[in-house]
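Q: For a teaching handout, I want to show students what a protein-ligand complex looks like in token form. Below are the inputs, and the small molecule is D-altro-hept-2-ulose 7-phosphate. Please produce the holo structure.
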Amino acid sequence: MKLFVDTGDIEEVRQAADWGVLDGVTTNPTLIAKSGKQFKETVLKICELVPNGAISAEVVATDYDTMLKEALEVASWHPNIVVKVPLIEPGVSLIKTLSDRGIRTNCTLVFSVSQALLAAKAGATFISNFVGRVDDISDDGMVAVRDTVDMIHTYDFKSEVLVASVRHPLHVVQAIQAGAHIATMPLKIMSMLFKHPLTDKGLKQFLDDWNKAGLHILEP
Ligand SMILES: O=C(CO)[C@@H](O)[C@H](O)[C@H](O)[C@H](O)COP(=O)(O)O
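A: Here is the structure, written as tokens, with D-altro-hept-2-ulose 7-phosphate included.
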């Protein structure tokens, strides 16, 4: 399973990249606006910090012709850029066009398996299935993730299921259990994946015992 960080903040990308377990970065218009920096500058800096990762950058037009122009522009910035496209009618047509041209896409704002079917048929590289926003309206966001993973396997689609709108580590656990290919999350959630009280307790005990015995690895 791949781990992506969901941010437009360069310092957060740098931190996640330093852990050595980062497979990519997702951004969206809200996150880019929050960064206070220009879109192209931010995306190119992210590409530099995560040289082997998939970097999602989203188009903002909602009509096919302008979306296509934006997609070709964004895709021309760097080979690791994946064009993020919302699941609307012209968006699905655009994903098909880009897929036919060998340009990778991330279909975003997907909330149901029927939407995911359209994205998969159009040839989306990633299908971004939002979970937190569904939980927010008292439904179970993971249902569509599980159904979409099953659909991908049943019909042998090539798309990868990307779990987005991740709010806590349990979402990551559930994404693993569902067999999702990728989870993207804010840095704060990624840092929480390290945490276990027994790790802290166990480490303290190891080090106390070692120090009491006056042992060392490196010559003092
Ligand atoms: O779509 C993707 C990943 O492809 C994400 O960037 C996605 O936009 C974000 O995970 C969500 O917007 C964050 O959702 P929320 O926590 O604000 O509900």
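A: Two things your students might notice: The radius of gyration is 20 Å. Residues 2-195 form a domain with the TIM Barrel fold (CATH 3.20.20.70).
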